[in-house]
Design goal:
Layout lengths: L2 H5 L5 H10 L2 E11 L2 E10 L4 H10 L14 E4 L4 E2 L6 E11 L2 E9 L5 H14 L2
Antiparallel strand pairs: 1-2, 2-6, 3-5, 4-5, 5-6
């Protein structure tokens, strides 16, 4: 993924584009899939070798109230109890997220579901991805 494609995920794409570039963005990879009505996204963002602190900020710096998903993981997960709405739509979804950082790589796992997200699903996906980053 390019820095522009990554920035488009947020509500403030222009600001995020500038922010990623100024913080040593190196490269990103993302996979999206759907199973039934549930959507999944796993994103990995790598920063320049001298910018590991930026990866930590990207992964866990802006997320609060995280619960651990694995021993030794420096991030965590959360599951929203109230639904959100897709942009310009009346369709709603529930959100689950796990984040962590290893070295210069920030990991973000996201689950979007029309029903409340099962925390075990988020934790399991995060554990699998975390183990691959070793």
């Amino acid at each position: 993924m390019s820095v522009g494609e990554l920035a488009e995920h947020s509500d403030s794409a222009v600001r995020d584009f500038k922010d990623l570039n100024s913080r040593g963005f190196r490269r990103a990879a993302e996979v999206n899939w759907k199973k039934g009505d549930t959507r999944y996204r796993v994103s990995l963002v790598q920063y320049a070798p001298d910018r590991a602190n930026e990866a930590a900020t990207h992964a866990v710096g802006t997320t609060r109230n995280l619960k651990p998903f694995a021993d030794g993981a420096n991030g965590g997960y959360r599951v929203d109890e109230t639904p959100r709405y897709w942009a310009d739509s009346a369709d709603r979804y529930y959100y689950g997220q796990a984040v962590a950082q290893r070295g210069t790589v920030a990991m973000v796992v996201e689950v979007f579901d029309p029903k409340p997200v099962n925390p075990d699903v988020v934790k399991d996906l995060a554990k699998q991805q975390w183990e691959r980053l070793v």
